[in-house]
Amino acid sequence: MPNVHELIRDHVTLSIRCLDRLYLHAYMPKLQTSGGLCYFLRDHLGHPIPSPALFAPMRARFVGAIKTYATTQAIPLLTFERGQRKDDVVAAHRAQRPMADGVVVIGVAQEKMRAFKAHQLPGRGTAVSFDFSRQSVAVNHYYFYVQDPDWGPAFIKLGTYLPYPIKLCLNGHEWVKQQLRRAQVPFASLDNGFLACADPPRLQAICDQLGPADVQRFFDRWAARLPSPMTAVDRAAGYTHRLALQQVEVSLTQVFARPVQGRHFFEAVIRENLDLGRPDRVGLLFPHRIIRTTPPPARGYRTRVITEGVEPSLHIEYKSSHVKQYFKEQHALRTETTINNPNDFYVNKAVPNLAHLRDLGDQVNRKLLEVERVSHHCVLTQDALDRLQQPTVENGQRTSALRFGDPRVMALFQAITAFTHLPHGFRNRDLRPHVEALLGRPYSTAQMTYDLRRLRLKGVIHRIPKTHRYTATSYGLKVAFFCAKLYLRILRPEWAALLPADDQLPRPLRTALDHLDAEIRKLHDEARLAA
User: Fold this and answer.
1) Rg, the chain, Cα only
2) Under DSSP, is residue 53 helix (H, G, I), strand (E, B) or coil?
3) Are the C-beta atoms of 89 and 78 separated by less than 8 Å?
4) In this predicted model, what pLDDT tens digit does every residue of 369-391 receive, in sequence order?
5) What's the rounded Cα separation, in Å, for the pair 103 and 89?
6) Phi-psi bin for 164: left (phi > 0), alpha (psi -120 to 50), beta?
């Protein structure tokens, strides 16, 4: 069976990086606090008392505007039942009402949101005053399923209670498809991606063009067309919505020439990478160090292999985000990083940060594939093994051996794999505690300095110029994986099998050796080599 490296290198006909689903939240900055709400009701609208009694007429006016819009535009208005799959219901309406630009259907569903709740404050005499707090309440939301000339199918969800939150769901692949149609570039679609394209470089270039300005342009266009809870006077006073990123999906789709090659890929990957969900292995993928104060995912660090029917998928979680890998429609390998909270990566949720988050997701996707390829194709040549096992002269400097099986050397290789994800490398003080913990005995800074010199001269690590930081080389990553896997998976657990006592050999191994011995004796007898 071909290994992961060969499958990706030789059997992928199309490889495309693209933003996938985008979920955004739009909010009114001036209506996020009790003070802001009171100012809006009293100073802007002119009511002497900021009372919750003012909410109902505002809501009624907004809901009435939505219903009037649906009637005048001849748009179906649906009520989604509890537990009903909205996408399936809307798909039927999209098929019945094809259009290039407009609202296909409007749906209403009762869902929870954080709205304002009033609390009457105690006061003297007949004066009445209120304070407001944000609490979760179940209210009606209106879904506008639109067909956009730039983005294709999308939806906008409007909350009908103050502070009138808005949710947007967009799809980067659909945006790219619209651009390809305009440019008259032939392509074949997957359900949410591309199966083939007449001009793959042009396709990738268009995928890379999608940015924050395109998202903002979509929102501004539909905010001007759909009913608004605010009047023109309110909007002129600054009561407008601002976009924030809620979820960003970054995908890498690699189409295999034949479906069986994708099956081979998953069999190999799942067998090799069930430990990727551990904290030390998660560090291989995400470009931030995991320390003691790093919050784990909600259900803890883990790798999940999910089989729905006969289609497996690999899931790796990190804080609020996760990576998913699956075989899409029996044609393509989809590697998908979903960032559910940009704060996990020390950036805020502003839309201009979309480009940075896309680069980060691309880096995670590439790193996952690199780890899978190297871990499954980490065989070293005889020359490479000799270079490690024997003292050599590198750049005029004598370098001692890195002997396989030496506990100190094995600890070094295992520790290095935990730092390969850091773009700025690691230092002596970063690596030393990990080596010391793996050794289980004191390990000094001087010993670490000596070992870093050995690793550098042997080509396992590279020193970043003008710094005291190091990064693992491609050769070093292969060395670390090869030695660590051979030692941890074979030699250490099965060391007793290498002892001469027959009764210590596992039965399958003893049976195989007996069969081999019998075949050798048979060849020996046939050649008449008996003494």
Assistant:
1) 31
2) helix
3) yes
4) 776 766 655 556 667 777 787 88
5) 15
6) left
